[in-house]
Design a protein that fits this description.
Layout lengths: L1 H18 L4 H4 L4 E6 L8 E10 L18 E10 L5 E3 L5 E3 L10 E16 L5 E4 L16 E2 L3 E5 L4 E6 L1 E2 L12 E7 L1 H7 L4 E7 L14 E5 L22 E2 L4 E2 L1 H16 L8 E6 L12 E2 L3 E2 H16 L9 E6 L1 H12 L7 E4 L22 E3 L4 E3 L1 E4 L5 E4 H11 L8 H9 L21 H11 L1 H16 L3 E6 L7 H11 L10 E5 L14 H4 L3 H4 L1 H11 L12
Parallel strand pairs: 1-10, 14-17, 14-20, 20-21, 21-26, 26-27
Antiparallel strand pairs: 1-4, 2-3, 2-6, 3-5, 6-7, 6-8, 6-9, 8-11, 12-13, 13-17, 15-16, 18-19, 22-23, 24-25
Helix pairs in contact: 6-10
Amino acid sequence: MHRSISNSLKLALITLCTLFVAAPIICAQAPKFSISFSKDRSATPLDGRVLLLLSTDPSDEPRNQISISYKTQIVFGADVDQLEPGKAVVVTDANAFGYPIRNLRDVKPGEYYVQALLHRYEMFHRADGHTVKLPMDRGEGQHWNLAPGNLYSKPKKVTINSSTNLSIVMDQEIPPIAAPKDTKYIRHMKIQSQVLTKFWGRPMFLSANVLVPEGFDEHPNARFPIMISEDHFNHDFEGLRTEPPDPNLKPDYSERFHISGYNRIQQEEEYKFYQTWISKDFPRYLVAQINHANPYYDDSYAVDSANLGPYGEAIETELIPALEKQFHAIGQGWARFVYGGSTGGWESLAVQMFYPDHYNGAFVACPDPVDFRAYTNINLYKDTNAFYLEGPHTKMAQPSYRNYLGQTLATTQSVNQYELALGSHARSGEQFDIWQAVYGPVGADGYPAQIFNKETGEIDHQVAEYWKEHYDLSAILQRDWATLGPKLRGKLHIYVGSADNYMLNDAVYLLEDFLKTTTNPPYDGEVKYGDKAEHCWNGDPNLPNYLSRLHYNTQYLPKILERIAKTAPAGADLTSWRY
């Protein structure tokens, strides 16, 4: 009788689980993790995102093994508000969002290296009236696993199953990052932005790593053209090496470029650049890698936006004028150029368009989507779902990242699941979140309005119309060509690989369709494609991309010099910088 009753109960529970799959207490018991931080790390309550990290790979800490790759380890994230010292937040299925496994109850039983980390937030009282909690960049370029001040625990090997109830104390703290030091050729500058400080309600800064020419200090009266390098956050200037390559450097393997010893190749090319830079007959100019990390990402996209504030104004009216004054630039639009790849590619095109008189040419490599009819592979205006192509009887998951053979390495849905695990309200510090933060309006809660539901993929077409009006670069060019065209003639140079890993070539095709057919005036620029080239091809048809991408600082120089000679006004300084 007891056995028969037991079997009846089991059958009833199975039926309940079938009907109510959202009831984890009934359907499956999930492991629990009580996470706290020690009082010696903070005497006051903290806000942020607690990340529970699980790994089966002992080669590194779990916090360094989370990525969009299918090889990723596991992360579960939960928001905490005013978590008190010594008090624990219990991470369970009820409050945690996981990647690549959505729920804790579905983690396979076994041995794992377990680690916890608190990505700390601070409160911002913005000038638009909204109060938000966000992770301010602390000199690391918005990497939660490296951010100074974040608390974490040492990895511990444990056995996990459905009955696990583990306490973890975060008693470690990531230390500050030392500021880079000036050298003969590389200088640094940091300013407080008044307009950004006003918007964010706390001191906000912009900085730059500046490559000065040979003889800079010996020629105080020379005035130089300047190349603004748009890129992700760079702690120091990258691409110049003043010492010969290290003969003892152990060669690594680049999965991105499918080549062994790429670290050696980089050192060789950086040293060759240095030798060219100091050579007698090489033109003298400035290269400024500008940094504008912010509470949402390692880069602001160099434009004014509702969620990030007036970064375009800050860069164009505060940072660049200060740079040009301190480093003896000519300081006029005819002697100022902009270039970059990926995020920097989009920015280069955007600032040339939004500030057409400030620059005399933009060299745009593998830009982020420049036409939102091809937002990677999504048409934001016609598609209903960002994750799937939907037919009458089936739906097909869409890729977000592919290799050079076209194999899908991550889907749009999986990448957004990754971002949701790292942060709610667009606080992951990752790609789709920064796009909606830059391009979108402010939501009712003060955080960016979603372009699509990050769990279901459903597109909000009202938000898409806002994007189109303000940041669809192709649509803006078509709308405003009568006034923009004359100012952009001969200035646009766009390059992308036909096998771009993020399908960014699709948007360039659409942009080119307009540029090559417009005649009033003609754009007189160039759009080029690298056959079978991946992200981020930068326009050199004679070299493989793993080499050409290391030549940004010199590759466009012949075209820049030609443009200067053609467009410099009468009486312009064409000689003081040619010593």
